[in-house]
Specification:
- Belongs to the AceK family.
- It is a single chain.
- By secondary structure, the protein is an alpha+beta fold.
- It has four domains: about 110 residues; about 160 residues, no CATH class; about 120 residues; about 130 residues, no CATH class.
- Helices cover about 40% and strands about 15% of the residues.
- The chain is built from 19 helices and 20 strands.
- Helix 1 packs antiparallel against helix 3 and helix 3 crosses helix 5.
Length: about 600
Amino acid sequence: MFPQRLDSPLAYDIAKAMRDGFDRHYRLFRAESARAKHRFETADWHGQQRAQRERIEFYDLRVGEAVARLEKEFKAGEQPMEVWHQVKLHFIGLLVDHHQPELAETFFNSVTTKILHRAYFQNDFIFVRPAISTEYIEQQGAPTYRAYYPTPETLPGVIQSLLLDYRLQGRGYANLERDAGRVATAILSRFHQVKLRANFQLQVLSGLFYRNKGAYVVGKIINGFTELPLALPILHDADNRFYIDAVLFGEEDLQMLFSFARAYFMVEMEVPSAYVQFLRSLMPRKPRAEIYNALGLAKQGKTLFYRDFLAHLNYSSDKFRSAPGIKGMVMLVFDLPSFPYVFKLIRDYYPPQKDTTREQIKSKYMLVKQHDRVGRMADTLEYSNVGFPLDRFEPELIEEIKRFAPSQLEIGDRDGNGEMEVVLKHCYIERRMIPLNIYLQEAFDLLDQPEHAHRASKQLEHAVVEYGNAIKDMVAANIFPGDMLWKNFGVTRGGKVVFYDYDEIEYLTDCNFRKVPAPRTEEEEMSGEVWYAVGPKDVFPETFGPFLLGNAAVREAFMAHHADLLDAAFWQSHKERIQAGQMLDVFPYDEAQRFKHVGHEPYF
């Protein structure tokens, strides 16, 4: 039972110390995000990527600091339940006028669960659902978004003003009038033969969204009852002057920009919930959890994901099962058919060809988390000691976990409420995709049916082209996928091919790409065994073919578009480019959407 009155000064002091710990975290997080503007202005691309990587660690560092302070100053772990009841109530009171209450509640949960015994993890002690509303929080100073009211005639000038309002310093725009004219023409063409209503306006978020070598204006066009999402990528030209590279329109383009397979944005926000609310109006199908993730607030994303997951369990009745497809040698994968995610457990035992350890596998997943995923590597949510209702598991899946990952499984009535739980010690959760090998097999099955042959042929070619493009995008970002089999890639709802098996991933620059040496004798030429020396990081691209191109139609499509992936020189040249400090652009939109600029060249 909650106390009838707040009479513990110690409880207030603990609550205030926790809020101070969160405020320090968000102040540092926000300052690092704000510095992205200067790094963009000065074309400090390696600094930008380094900051994106390091910012991911901020949260756990601040939680650790808060835990250490509470134990040192208040012996927090020794305090009775009556005090902790009051701590939560005081904390709620301290958030009434706060600008990031939802993030502070999650921080409270993180600190509290590191201090208290597992039996305390109930509604009384942590925020199972939010206590403070995030509606109508007003940002101090600059508003969350700005509104502009052009006419067709004034639209180019209004767009110039809109861009200048971001106050980018540096060498300025190469040709602002040209860019504004292009954007205006693109907007008006979308409203061709449509009457512009009295409320015709542009609304854009006040902060630019920085990632890698780009900055993005994000907003929407409103006309009557129509709202059209909009984004403007700002890049640097060869003289380090700014230019608008494209106009992105509609929910699909914005979904690609904010994809779960891309690195997190840096954007300076006082009221993150207001940004999320605005972005949801642009992408209503995108879960709030994924939007918080895209903004770099991954812990809040995890909190919201788990709440959504629990709500889904309440309103569904299907059971967890072993995921369809070829079984992995390192990961045990299962899913809930009605839920669009998969759950991955690291197995306890691996076959001899997988020379790895649990810690090495976890380090590979952390590498991907901190790296630029260039739209081709799925983000993962990592959970420890996560509980599931036992009666929602197929018995065969429980037996499979007991057999292959027994160290990760605990079954019991953890909360003492009479309901048996499956507790997984450590798991990863990813967006569900169609495994590429299954996607290809569906095309193979239709090729022999005349009425479906054309569509199947297009599906097959699209899959193969996208597969090669995925590998080349990863190469551009200094990633060698390691295991390039079709089963390790998936097809997203938007038709993109994304990599999701990271246990053999390596930096491209750590690999040694070689041609297979010419045989010296007839015996070597006829040998079915590898007769030449192979180092631990040696890669022979010409040997990929037999594993990937057994199907004639696949081989034809692959050789037409991506034969260079079988050539060691291709890989070695990109390794040397990266070692020389070059960073290639990997755009979150199609080449065809870009405005034509002098000197533009495709990166492959």
